[in-house]
Records
---
Amino acid sequence: MESENNNAKDKSSKKGLIVFLKVFLISTALLSTVIAFAAINFYRNIGPPEIPTTQPSAINRGPISMPSGLDNDDDSDPVMALIAPERFLGDERRELFFTFLIVGLNEGKNANTVMVASYDGINHEANLISIPRDSLINVNRSNRKLSGAFLNGMVSGGGAEGGIAQVQREVMSVVGFVPDFYVIFNYDAFKEVIDAVGGVEIYVPFHMRYDDPLQDLHIDIPPGLQHMDGQTALYFARFRESNRGFRPITDYQRIKNQQAVIDAVLSNLMRPSNILRIPEFIEIFNNNVYTNLNFDDMLWFASQHNVIRGEDSVHFHTAPTDGSSGRPMWYEFLHAPGIVELVNRTVNPFRENLEIGDLDIIRQ
C-alpha cells in the first residue's frame, strides 16, 4: 500500500513538473513575443535622424562616450569643416537619404578601412564605397596616404576630434562632400559585433598563412567555406602578407575581403532573432566606437533592417584608381572621372550631380 502511495506521489510530482515546465515555456515565449513587439513599436515611434549641419564636433552625441584609446585631451576650439560645395548648402538634399564615413583603426590609430556609405530611406537601399587606404591625398605631410589622416589629425591637435576632422577633409577631397555621420571603430568593436551575431560564414579562396612573432600574430585559415568568430574574421579582413610558400594578396583583394565580412555581418544582423540584441550592439558601440550618431539615431537605423530586403539591397564598390607610384611609398592614384561617376550613382546625397572640379584629386 505504501509502495502504491509513493508511486502515486511520484506520478503526481512528475505531472506537476511537466505542467510547470509547459507554463514556464509558454510564459517565456509570450514574454519574448511581447518584448519583440514592444521593441518594434518603440522603433516605429522614433523618427529619422536630423542631418548634421556642421562637422565634426558641434554635433550633440547624446549618450555616446569616447571609447578607450580615443581620448580627447585637447580643450581647444572645435575644428569645423565645409560639408559640401557652396551650391549644395541650400535645400538641395535628396529626401530620407543619409551618408556615413566609416573608419576602422588599427592599434596605431592608422586607418585600415575607409568607406563612404549611403542609406536611401525611400528605396531602402544601401551603398558602400571602399577608398584604398594607400590613396594619394593632396595634403602637406611626409606620408600623404589616406590611412594616416586620423593619426595626423590627432597629433596635430584636437585629439580624436582633430583626427575625425582631418579624415573628413581628406575624404571630402575624394568624394566632394563630408558624409553626414561618422563611425570610427577599433578592432575590439569589429570582433565583438561578429561574436554577438554568432560569427559569420566566409568563403576563403586559398590557404591564408602568416606568422609574425614580433606582433605575436599567427594567421592560419584553411581554404573553403569557414565559420569564423570575431578574431578569425579580423585576421581574414587584415590578411595581406604571407609566409614563404603561401599566397599574399593586394590591397584591392583585402578590400574585397573586408566587404565580404561586412556583407556577412549585415546578413546576420537582418535576422529577426537579432532584434532583441540591438541593445547589446549599441553597448558595443558605446564602448568601442566614436560617432556623432545619438541613441535615437541608432535605434531608427536599426529599425530599418526590417525594410531592407535581401542581399540585392546592399551594394559594395571600390573607388577606381589609375595605377601606383611604385617604390618606395606605393601610393595609389585615384581616378577622378570614375570616382565622380560612381559617387553620383551611389552615395551623392544631393539632387544635383557633383563634378570633377568639386574634388581635389591628384592626377598621375
---
Amino acid sequence: MIKLVCFDMDGVIFQSTNFWLDLHKELGTYEKGLELTKKYVGTDYKTLVEEVVNKLWKNKLADKYFELIKKAKYVKGVKETFKELKKRKIKTALITSGASHLALRAKNELGIEFVFSNELVIKNNIITGDFKWPVGFGLKEKPIIVKHLVKEVRCSLKEIAYVGDNDNDIEVCKIVGLSIAFNIKHSKLAEVCDIIIEEDDLQAILKHLF
C-alpha cells in the first residue's frame, strides 16, 4: 500500500519542463544560459550555478522571475490528483531542483505536505547572486531526501511512489516501491520505471496507486 507519493515539479506539476531556461528567456540570457546548461548540467551543477546566478543574473530585477511564478500553468489533472490523494489520506511531497517560490506556490494551492527545492536568493526585489541548493541537480540528493521522508512519514521505501519525467529522477526511482515515468521526452527514465504514462493528464497515475 502506497503511503507517500513524491513528485518532481517541472513537467510533472507545472507544464514548463525547465523553469530556469524559461527565466533565461525572460532575462535575456537564453543563448548563453542554454550553452552553460548543456555543458554543466548533470556533471558540474555547482559551476553551472556560479556561472549563471553569480554572473549572468546577479543584480538583475526579480520582477520577471515573480511574473513567471505567477503565470506558470499546471499540468492537466493536477488539482484533481492531489484532491484524490488527500481524500485517501496519502501524503505528498514535492522534490525539485526547480525554483523554491514556484514549489511553495504548489504547496499552498495543492496542500502538499513536504516541499524540497532550490532557492534563487532575492532581496529587495534584486537577484543577489546567491543560490541555496539543498536539492542540487537531484541525482544524489533526491534519494537522500526520500530516505529522510521514510522517517517523517513512518513508512518503508516500498510504500513510497515517485513520479518524474527526466534523467535526474533515475536514481530516486531505483529505490522506491513504485516508480512512474510521466509524459517523458528524450529521457532514459523509462528504462528504470515500473510504470510509463504517455498521456499528459496527471490523473492517469491514480489507478496505479490504489
